[in-house]
Amino acid sequence: MNHPVESVYSALTSILLPYMGEPVPVQRNCSCCGRAPSEFDGVGFELVNAYRERVVHCRPCQTFFVSAPELMGVENPKKPTTGQKFGMWSGVGAVINVEDNSSVLLAPQGVVNKLPEHFFDHIEVITATSGQHLEYLFNTELKFPLIYIQNFGVKTYELVRSLRVSLSADAIYTCADQLLTRQNEVLYMLDLKKAKELHQEIKNYSKKEMDIFIRTVTLLAYSRITRLC
Fold it and tell me: Containing domain of residue 53, as a range?
């Protein structure tokens, strides 16, 4: 079975392929997804990271690090040669339909405003903050299997290693740049039906009530408090 990053690449991040340069034969595992060269055709990109460490990226993983302002838009007007990147996109999410090889980008208005018009020729974009993702999931006829990226964030290695394919609406992985493991992945699983019921229940809470609710649920999830039976 292919690593989930291949599905994300095929349906979304491969739009950056023309901006990546040519890969070279590599002998080492990908530093990002951890796959052996035989699992990604044996070619990739050899680089030196910000910590002056030599790293290897397979083609799908490298797309998260590519700066292409002409396609992705300029991140900061003071640095017009630096584009927005999938690997540095806090608050941006996506839904990847694995079988249809299609994607929807979920991005806040500030990010959408920076995207050039021709970006929308390649990718469907829904304007939504992170807090509005649930509304989108509730009101969309989702097709499984899928990959839901709740937040691309800034820690790409953690995100890629946390990618999971969701097979049904009662167990959707909320993938983000916080490392998922066999031990903690249950904390990142969403039962869409139950979430919708809860959303209806609490949508009229005041901010103070909502803060108390979130804090209580968080403490319960991390076993810092226990339920009263």
Answer: 4-190
